[in-house]
Specification:
heterodimer, A: about 110 residues, mainly beta, 4-stranded antiparallel β-sheet, about 0% helix, about 45% strand, B: about 110 residues, 6-stranded mixed β-sheet, 5-stranded antiparallel β-sheet
Chain lengths: ~110, ~110
């Protein structure tokens, strides 16, 4: 079946602009995660959605970051007034609960 | 707060040599997961260990969970160029949130 998909695969934006990153999880997966990975670094947790529960936003680095998940499926991560330090690969993952996470290919964001 | 450390950060081996990466948690883990990320790719789940002292094998890969459930290791026997990538361990920070180790990057000389 189809895996986790993300779009766009690459995004170059000017400092100060807003960007939206999209994630389509695996069908039927109730849990959805966003991570950020800087070059050569580990995975930084950003936000978690589980069904209709309130999301865990504890990893969002600033109030410029927000995310929503509509209808328990597609999720959008929005970064407002982008800064150069926001440049990274943004990874989305989904799971069926406490099981392993399936990652999408990521969106490489470059802020110039 | 809870931390998951991995060593070494990098390992450069000759093809055919063995490789081991170690994962250590500051707290007891209910389980540990291992992921592999190929260069330019995304993390891919390899395995989950749950029981104290558990050992699991996948072909040339051997995974071990410590008796105290605070450490784990991944050993690759006779590395191949296809083993190149970064190996991450991950432990649950809560019932759903994983904390990932910093990863060990494996380079293999053909």
């Amino acid at each position: 079946g189809a895996g986790v998909s993300q779009s766009p695969s690459n995004k170059v934006t000017e400092k100060g602009k807003d960007v939206e990153l999209r994630c389509d999880p695996i069908s039927g997966h109730t849990a959805l995660y966003w991570y950020r990975q800087s070059l050569g670094q580990g995975l930084e947790f950003l936000i978690y959605f589980q069904g209709n529960s309130a999301p865990d936003k504890s990893g969002l680095p600033s109030d410029r970051f927000s995310a929503e998940r509509t209808g328990g499926s597609v999720s959008t991560l929005t970064i407002q007034r982008t800064q150069q330090e926001d440049s990274a690969v943004y990874l989305c993952a989904s799971s069926s609960g406490r099981a392993e996470q399936y990652f999408g290919p990521g969106t490489r964001l470059t802020v110039t | 707060g809870q931390q998951v450390m991995q060593i070494p950060q990098y390992q450069h081996v000759q093809e055919g040599e063995d490789f081991t990466t170690y994962c250590n948690s500051s707290t007891t883990l209910s389980n540990i997961q291992w992921y592999k990320q190929r260069p330019g790719g995304h993390p891919v789940f390899l395995i989950q260990l749950v029981k104290s002292g558990e050992v699991k094998k996948q072909k040339r890969l051997t995974f071990q969970f410590g008796e105290a459930k605070k450490n784990s290791s991944l050993h690759i026997t006779a590395t191949q160029t296809t083993d190149v990538g970064t190996y991450f361990c991950a432990g649950p920070l809560s019932s759903y949130k994983l904390i990932f180790g910093s990863g060990t990057r494996l380079l293999v000389r053909p």
